[in-house]
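Hi Prof. W.,

I finally got the GFA family protein prediction working! I wasn't sure whether to trim anything, so I left the full sequence exactly as given:
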Amino acid sequence: MPRVETGACFCGAIAATMDGEPFWICYDHDDDCRRAIGSPLTVWVGYRPSQFNLSRGTPKAFSKTPGVIRTFCPDCGSSIGYSDEGLPDELYLTIGFFDKPEGLRPQAHAYWDLRLPWVDFADKLPRIERYSRKRDAKFGNPRDR
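And this is what came out:
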């Protein structure tokens, strides 16, 4: 049977199903994401937009950086995910959106150079200084836009 994950925001106004396997799961130590999520780091779970199916509600969208759109619940403020035009056909959902996150194991650390100095990991996962995914160079780095 194909994998199906479910997720919802804190208040339950937004809910979705994610069909199939995620293509990438990564710890993110980026300071922009840290501010957006309100946590020292997050875990992003990558799906194709076609794998994401809203079953309840309509997320609100926000963009501080051109080409990067973050979504969240307009009622409780829970982060849902983000998309980046430099990463076409990729949608990233925050681990906190999932009903059963224990089955979603990270594969690497991204933006390792921006981690908070008191965050320590004993794992042997790759530590990538910046993006963990190959971005389309014509869109530039969001930090430089």
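The chain is about 5% helix and 30% strand. Does that look reasonable to you?

Thanks,
D.
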